[in-house]
Write a structure and sequence with these properties.
alpha/beta; seven-stranded parallel β-sheet; 40% helix; binds NADP nicotinamide-adenine-dinucleotide phosphate
Length: 294
C-alpha cells in the first residue's frame, strides 16, 4: 500500500481498498505496516480504511503493528508520529525495522519500553535481526515478536530462528511468504525491483526454476502451495494482496494443506536454492546508509 524502493509502484488504490476490506470482513485481524512504506503512505491508507470500517470492525479485534527505523531520532517521537498517522491512541506492536549498530540499541529499547509501561505500545518486535543479533535484547525488554522473511525462496537460518523463538517464547512472524509474488507464478521476468532479487539471477536461477516447477505440480493453486509451506514454518504470516482476487485466494489457501512428503520435497528444493547464495538478506543488505542518517 506504500510503494517504496521500486516495489509496488502504480498499484490501483481501488484494488487495494477492495482487498483490504475483503480481508478484514472475512476474519484477517493482523495489519502489518511501517513508517518506511511509502514514507507514511501505508499508515495513512490504513487509518482511512479503518475509519471507514469502524462500525463493522471494532479496534479490539485487530492486531496493528508498525515499524520504526532506529536512528538518532528519539523513538517516542517516531512512535507518536505513527500513532498520529494511524489515528490511534495505542498500538499493538512496534518493531525495530532493521538493526542499527551506529546507535546504542539498549538505550533505544529502554526508551521504547517506557512506552510499553505506559500502555501506548503493547509489545515490541524485532525485524530483520538474526538470532545472534537479537539475543542480547530478548528477555531484557518486552519483546515478543521476531519478524523474518520466510518463504521457499528464503529459508536460510530458518531452523535456527525457529529454535530461537521457541526458546525465548517469541512469535515468529514470516514476511514475504510468496517471495514478493515470485512464488505465485512460473514467471521469471519482472520490470520492477523484483527483477534484482537474487533467485532470478545466476547462479540461483536454475534452482529457483526447479522450485517453481515443483510448486506448480502440487495439485493446489501455486500461491496456495507456497503459502501452505510458509504457514507450517511460521507462527504468523504477513502476506501481501494487491487485488480482491488475490485476497480471496490467499485467505482461502489457509484451509489448504500439503502432504508430509510434499513438504519434504519442497524443503529440499528450498535448501538447494539457499546454498546458491552467500547473501545475508532476502531483500537487500541492511540499509546502513539510511540508518546512519535517519
Ligand atoms: N520486516 C520487513 O522488512 C518486511 C519486508 C517486506 C515485507 N514485509 C511485510 O510483509 C508483507 C508481505 O510481503 P510482500 O508483499 O513483500 O510479499 P508477499 O506476501 O510474498 O507477496 C505479495 C505479492 O505477491 C503477489 N500475490 C499475492 N497473492 C497472490 C496470489 N494469490 N496470486 C498471485 N500473486 C499473488 C502480489 O504481487 P503483484 O502485486 O505483482 O500481483 C503481491 O503484491 C508486506 O506487506 C509487509 O507488511 C516486511
Amino acid at each position: 500500500m506504500g510503494p517504496s524502493h521500486g516495489f509496488w509502484e502504480g498499484r490501483s488504490k481501488s484494488d487495494l481498498t477492495k482487498a483490504f476490506h475483503y480481508l478484514l470482513r472475512h476474519g484477517a485481524a493482523c495489519i502489518d505496516t511501517a513508517q518506511a512504506y511509502g514514507n507514511g503512505a501505508s499508515e495513512q491508507f490504513i487509518a482511512a480504511q479503518l475509519k471507514f470500517l469502524s462500525r463493522e470492525i471494532p479496534r479490539e479485534r485487530l492486531f496493528i503493528s508498525t515499524k520504526i527505523m532506529p536512528g538518532p531520532t528519539d523513538p517516542e517521537k517516531l512512535v507518536l508520529k505513527s500513532l498520529r498517522r494511524l489515528h490511534l491512541d495505542w498500538i499493538d506492536a512496534v518493531y525495530l525495522h532493521w538493526p542499527n549498530y551506529y546507535i546504542d540499541q539498549f538505550q533505544y529499547l529502554e526508551k521504547l519500553t517506557r512506552l510499553v509501561d505506559c500502555g501506548i505500545i503493547k509489545t515490541i518486535g524485532l525485524s530483520n535481526y538474526t538470532s545472534q543479533e537479537a539475543i542480547d535484547f530478548v528477555g531484557r525488554f518486552p519483546i515478543s515478536l521476531f519478524q523474518r522473511p520466510i518463504s521457499l525462496a528464503w529459508s536460510k537460518d530458518l531452523e535456527a530462528d525457529r529454535a530461537f523463538c521457541s526458546r525465548y517464547n517469541l512469535t515468529l512472524v514470516g514476511y514475504s511468504p510468496l517471495a514478493m509474488g515470485l512464488l505465485a507464478s512460473q514467471r521469471l521476468d519482472y520490470e520492477d525491483s523484483r527483477k534484482d532479487l537474487y533467485c532470478l539471477q545466476e547462479p540461483s536461477r536454475q534452482a529457483f526454476k526447479a522450485l517453481l516447477k515443483a510448486l506448480g505440480s502440487m495439485g493446489l493453486e501455486q500461491s496456495a502451495a507456497a503459502l501452505c509451506w510458509a504457514a507450517r514454518k511460521a507462527d504468523m504470516l504477513v502476506v501481501g494482496s494487491t487485488s480482491l482476487e488475490q485476497a480471496k485466494a490467499n485467505l482461502c489457501s489457509m484451509q489448504a494443506s500439503l502432504e508430509p512428503e510434499e513438504m519434504k520435497a519442497l524443503d529440499e528444493l528450498s535448501r538447494k536454492l539457499s546454498v546458491t547464495t552467500s547473501r545475508q538478506s532476502f531483500l537487500h543488505e541492511p540499509p546502513c546508509a539510511i540508518l546512519r542518517t535517519c
